[in-house]
Specification:
The protein is mainly beta. The chain has no helices and eleven strands. Strands 2, 4, 5, 6, 9, 10 and 11 form a seven-stranded mixed sheet that branches. It has a four-stranded antiparallel sheet with strand order 1-3-8-7, with no helix packed on it.
C-alpha cells in the first residue's frame, strides 16, 4: 500500500483557483490509480476525479472543464488544479489510491480543507 498526504487547501474567493497536491510514499506509486474525493458538512463523500496509471482521467460532471487532475510519477505526486471555484466546491478534499479497478480505494490521506467564499 501507499501512504498519502494532501496539501494545498485554503480559503479562496469564488472564481479563484487552488492546486491540491497528493504526495505518496511507495515504490510502486506509478502503478496505482489515484482519486480525489470531497465531503462537505452534512453530505456524503463524493468522487471528484481520478487518474489511472496509464494517464486516463475521469471527472464528475460538476467539475469538468474547471478541474484538472495530473500526476508526476517522478515526484510520487498527483495534483488537482481547481479553477473557477464555486462556493459549492467547499469541502474537505481527500486523495485515495487503489491498485486495481476491481478493488476499492484502500489508502486514504487525512484530507485538506477547501473553502470558497461568495
Amino acid at each position: 500500500q501507499v501512504q498519502l498526504v494532501e496539501s494545498g487547501g485554503g480559503l479562496v474567493q469564488a472564481g479563484g483557483s487552488l492546486r491540491l497536491s497528493c504526495a505518496a510514499s511507495g515504490r510502486t506509486f506509478s502503478s496505482y490509480t489515484i482519486g480525489w474525493f470531497r465531503q462537505a458538512p452534512g453530505k456524503e463523500r463524493e468522487f471528484v476525479a481520478a487518474i489511472r496509471w496509464s494517464g486516463s482521467v475521469y471527472y464528475t460532471d460538476s467539475v469538468k472543464g474547471r478541474f484538472t487532475i495530473s500526476r508526476d510519477n517522478a515526484k510520487n505526486t498527483v495534483y488537482l488544479q481547481m479553477n473557477s471555484l464555486k462556493p459549492e466546491d467547499t469541502a474537505a478534499y481527500y486523495c485515495a489510491a487503489r491498485y486495481r479497478d476491481s478493488e476499492p480505494y484502500g489508502s486514504w490521506g487525512q484530507g485538506t480543507q477547501v473553502t470558497v467564499s461568495s
